[in-house]
Amino acid sequence: MDYQNRAGSKKGGGGVAGFSETNADRRERLRKLALETIDLEKDPYFFKNHLGSFECKLCLTVHVNDGSYLAHTQGRKHQTNLARRAARDQREGRTDPITGLPITGATGALGVSAIQVRKNLMKIGRPGYRITKIRDPISRQEGLRFQLQYPEIGTEIVPRHRFMSAFEQRIENAMENKQFQYLLVAAEPYEAVAFKIPSKEIDRRPAKFWTHYDKDTNEYFLQLLFKADKDDRCKYLECFSKDYY
C-alpha cells in the first residue's frame, strides 16, 4: 500500500493510514486469499447479472464485486440460510448417498455442493390424439375421453396431466374465456398439449375419472365426466319414474 503524500508527512515519507485505507487493504488481502482456495464457479448461489453485479440467489443480495460476495458467504445471514436449507432437506429425507450429508444445493463456499441439473431435451413435435364425447348410461353425465399416442417416448417416462383455469394461462384473454378450462398433458420429448374444455366441475370418483398408460402401444388414455347439473338430474329422475311406473 502507498503511504506517501498523506497529511502531516513529507514527500517520500510514510504516513499513518486511516481507518478506511486500512479496511480497504484488509478486504483486498482477504479477497486474494479466498480466491486462491475458493472456486466461485462451483457455488450454485453465485450469479452474475447483466449489470455486472454479483447476486446471492440464496439470500437475494446484490454485491458490487466478488470480494463483497465472498465476505457475504462468511457472514451470519448466509450461514443461517444455509443451515435452514440443510435442515429442510434433512427433514424431507434428501441425503447424498456417498457422504450421507443432506443435499442442499450448496453447503457453503468451502463445502461440497450437489446441484440437480434439469435436462434440456429437444422437442420432437406434438403427439397424435383423439377425443371422443361420452355419456354415462346410468347417471347421464356428459364427458370426454382422450387418447394420445407417444410412439417415441422414453422407457422411463409416463405422461402426466393437470387442469389449468382460464386465469392461469397467458395465451387467451381470461375474462373472455372464463367459461372454459384447460387440460394439459406432457411427456418428454414431446411438446405439452392443451385441450380447451368447459369450465364445469369434474367428477373425481374413480369410476368416473381415470387414466391409463399402455406401455406396449405407448398410448395414454384419460376419461373424465362432468358433474350433472341439478336440472339435468331432475329431468332424468322424472323420466325414470315415468318409465318405472
TrEMBL record:
<dbReference type="InterPro" id="IPR031781">
    <property type="entry name" value="SF3A2_dom"/>
</dbReference>
<dbReference type="InterPro" id="IPR000690">
    <property type="entry name" value="Matrin/U1-C_Znf_C2H2"/>
</dbReference>
<keyword id="KW-0479">Metal-binding</keyword>
<dbReference type="Pfam" id="PF16835">
    <property type="entry name" value="SF3A2"/>
</dbReference>
<dbReference type="InterPro" id="IPR003604">
    <property type="entry name" value="Matrin/U1-like-C_Znf_C2H2"/>
</dbReference>
<dbReference type="InterPro" id="IPR052092">
    <property type="entry name" value="SF3A2"/>
</dbReference>
<dbReference type="GO" id="GO:0071013">
    <property type="term" value="C:catalytic step 2 spliceosome"/>
</dbReference>
<dbReference type="GO" id="GO:0071004">
    <property type="term" value="C:U2-type prespliceosome"/>
</dbReference>
<keyword id="KW-0508">mRNA splicing</keyword>
<feature type="region of interest" description="Disordered">
    <location>
        <begin position="80"/>
        <end position="100"/>
    </location>
</feature>
<dbReference type="GO" id="GO:0005686">
    <property type="term" value="C:U2 snRNP"/>
</dbReference>
<dbReference type="GO" id="GO:0000245">
    <property type="term" value="P:spliceosomal complex assembly"/>
</dbReference>
<keyword id="KW-0539">Nucleus</keyword>
<keyword id="KW-0507">mRNA processing</keyword>
<dbReference type="InterPro" id="IPR013087">
    <property type="entry name" value="Znf_C2H2_type"/>
</dbReference>
<protein>
    <recommendedName>
        <fullName>Matrin-type domain-containing protein</fullName>
    </recommendedName>
</protein>
<dbReference type="Pfam" id="PF12874">
    <property type="entry name" value="zf-met"/>
</dbReference>
<dbReference type="GO" id="GO:0003676">
    <property type="term" value="F:nucleic acid binding"/>
</dbReference>
<feature type="domain" description="Matrin-type">
    <location>
        <begin position="54"/>
        <end position="84"/>
    </location>
</feature>
<keyword id="KW-0862">Zinc</keyword>
<comment type="similarity">
    <text>Belongs to the SF3A2 family.</text>
</comment>
<keyword id="KW-0863">Zinc-finger</keyword>
<feature type="compositionally biased region" description="Basic and acidic residues">
    <location>
        <begin position="86"/>
        <end position="95"/>
    </location>
</feature>
<keyword id="KW-0747">Spliceosome</keyword>
<dbReference type="GO" id="GO:0008270">
    <property type="term" value="F:zinc ion binding"/>
</dbReference>
<feature type="region of interest" description="Disordered">
    <location>
        <begin position="1"/>
        <end position="22"/>
    </location>
</feature>
<dbReference type="InterPro" id="IPR036236">
    <property type="entry name" value="Znf_C2H2_sf"/>
</dbReference>
